[in-house]
Fold this sequence. Notes:
Blueprint: H1 3-12, H2 35-73, H3 77-104, H4 107-127, H5 131-159, H6 165-190, H7 196-201, H8 204-215, H9 221-226, H10 230-240, H11 243-259, H12 274-289, H13 292-305, H14 311-335, H15 341-369, H16 376-392, H17 395-405, H18 409-441, H19 444-463, H20 472-483
Helix pairs in contact: 1-20, 2-3, 2-5, 2-6, 2-8, 3-4, 3-5, 3-18, 4-5, 4-8, 5-6, 5-17, 5-18, 6-14, 6-17, 10-11, 12-17, 12-18, 12-19, 13-14, 13-16, 14-16, 15-16, 15-19
The site of beta-D-glucopyranose (BGC) has 11 residues, from helix 6 and helix 13.
Amino acid sequence: MSTERTSEAGRADDNVSPSGAARSAEPPPGSDRRPATTLYITLIAAVAALGGLLFGFDTGVIAGAMLFIVPDFHLGPGEQGLVVSAVTFGALFGALIGGTTSDAIGRRWTNIVAGLSFIAGSILSAVAPNVDALIASRVIIGVAIGLTSVAAPMYIAELSPARNRGKLVSLFQLAVTAGILVSYIVDRSLAPEHAWRWMLGLACIPGSLLVLGMIAMPESPRWLLKTGAEKSARHALSLVRSPDEIDAEVKEIHEDLEHNRPAAWTELLMPGLRPALLVGVGLAVFQQVTGINTIIYYAPQIFQKAGLDSASTALAATIGIGVTNVLSTLIAIWLVDRVGRKPLLLAGLSGMTLSLAALGVAQRFVSTTGIDQQKLGPITVGFIGLYIVCFAFSLGPVVWLMISEIFPTRARARAAAVSTAANWMANFLVSLSFPVLQAMMGSSLWFLYAAMGVAAFIFVVGYVPETKGKSLEDISRQWRTANR
Ligand code: BGC
């Protein structure tokens, strides 16, 4: 399948609105006849996805580590909040910085800097002599997470062929979920020794792999062309495309760069880019306000409250949630280039909304009728499990994927940075407000997240374009046509 054919497919779609369904001339995924380049691009995606592994590990590990940090450092509630939320705060800034560095030093170097920050942050947190040093080290880790959440999906998307881009970028989310699961397991295994310093310090191993791996990888050809380095861009493309695809793809990227010339950050708000930015920011925020991290961060407490009496049963259920999250992400990897992004988003949002509403109804029913409280535990685990399955094949991977592909090359880094920062801001607000809202609203809180699910569904139907099988330049051209 040549790039020319991809472009033709895009051109044929030119008068379709971006919110219309894709009509791609792509052959079915899996029919690739170039095993060497396919293998190499998969390796590139896997190396960049190590940033996702660290993202998941470092956000997940703190829950178990806090059990021992609190008595060691005699932390009050305020300091506890600072240690936990320092990462989210750092990530917000890291995301914004990532937009600038991805343009200035490139996608590859931004990922390397992220890896170095992961190493520095994990070592510092492992040896932190006091709470201030610990908070500072968690901010550094947060900055690394922000950098990687902008630069890794974008780097993978810019190197991937259109036919496999969904699957390859979704490896990033697979790594996030694997990182969360590994953090639960590490916390559990090291808990008997109260070894919180090891829990935090272990992240320097994947951090080092990320740095070493990225040093060996090529730079994004799209960034290289943007900076005028055509020879290097052609070389990078030659590693991941067959020779007959390169000329057409270079030509297409040049055309796209000529048509999109945003000069400054403020240009993101101009009519040309605004609709795409609305989609990026909207998806990023909906990924959080539908409640995923109330479960990822607070699952043991939710389960204990629902009557899973012992702390160890609640922890086992939490590990079950982690495994479900990883396995269900595989559904997206299998389907995202076959059925497309929108059907996955809509199916996932329907399932998430129904599970949340069912959870609210069940909890209210049990508390108002006073029937067997014992039944609430398994019901809660069941509906939360279903919710996780639906998130993991939809909003989880597809949001990071679409943020990496819906913006034109000239504006991609900045627009992805703004969308990613919005994701971290929403994450911060939802996870901060959850305990307070739960105390105020009880089981009705689940209805609030379900209502957000309905709003997200309407947003996807109305505003989100299908990008399956289209080259990044086709997607960019579609926005231009729609804006005319
Ligand atoms: C989200 C994280 C979330 C994780 C759960 C990611 O896509 O951005 O906030 O914790 O998925 O798997």
